[in-house]
């Protein structure tokens, strides 16, 4: 039994490492800081947005032009960034729809306050607020290979139902609309990106969306416990298209499995490939063999519940060994 348990753990880690080595894509980022209402929140949202942008550029190899930032109108910000009102946000997504393709990936961060009027969840900005249905329309107009939408505002959980769909990884800072207090989740999620290696659960030298979420969630819980406060926010992750989300995502099954294969590093150049230990270019023949084995692994996973556990892990081990040989051949 111990051997079977160790085999499961070893194969799970191998599988996560293997499936995370996807084809390189050009990532674009949009950071939107909403209206603060009070000076302390105005300063907080602008500082968090600026810090997030700096981390992505300095630690994750994004070029400044890869990261668009929209902020609340303030004397020290608009000289550098656009105003985060409905018009500029709409224009940003329209521009992205014209200048991205299926080979690109997009990450959207919302930082600020959110509300719910009984029918629509809203993100608070200067002028008319934007609703969940508005953002759904923006996303529907895009043609990107993968979309990550991280709403770190209060009352953000209600966004999941409207925005959920195939190819979309969604995170909210709260569970539903009733959690209306200003959130702490944003600070912890940004800390996950800043810490990087500390949040890297499988130690593959990359930080996935699921890993960042888990790090932020755990530190959020500790934050409330340390202050002896009742936790007022319960973040959710949804990546399987059902619009429900979970606070306990899994790296391999259900919500979290797809997000675990999306890492934050910009992956355009060879230096990044070496530094993050990603897959090396292979010949068409090896690429075909690799895809064939990966397809067999995915098919095997769908049959896991109906198979004897020992049989499942034996079959998985054989496929992983095949994949290891292909990867070894690609380096010759």
Count of folded domains: 2
Q: From the alpha-carbon coordinates, what is the Rg to the nearest angstrom?
A: 21 Å
Poorly predicted residue ranges:
19-23, 269-282
Describe the largest sheet. 7 strands, mixed
Separation of the first and last Cα atoms:
38 Å
* CATH topology tier name of the largest domain: Rossmann fold
Structural summary, described in words:
It contains ten helices and ten strands. The radius of gyration is 21 Å and the shape is globular. The chain starts with a helix and ends with a helix. The chain is an alpha/beta fold and 332 residues long. The chain has helices at 2-19, 39-59, 86-99, 132-140, 159-163, 185-195, 209-226, 270-275, 284-302, 309-330; strands at 26-33, 67-71, 82-83, 104-111, 114-116, 121-123, 130-131, 146-151, 168-172, 236-238. Strand 6 (121-123) and strand 7 form a beta hairpin. It folds into two domains: 2-16 and 281-330, no CATH class; 25-271, Rossmann fold.
Write the layout of secondary structure elements.
Blueprint: H1 2-19, E1 26-33, H2 39-59, E2 67-71, E3 82-83, H3 86-99, E4 104-111, E5 114-116, E6 121-123, E7 130-131, H4 132-140, E8 146-151, H5 159-163, E9 168-172, H6 185-195, H7 209-226, E10 236-238, H8 270-275, H9 284-302, H10 309-330
Parallel strand pairs: 1-2, 1-4, 2-3, 4-8, 8-9
Antiparallel strand pairs: 5-6, 6-7, 9-10
Helix pairs in contact: 1-10, 2-6, 6-7, 9-10
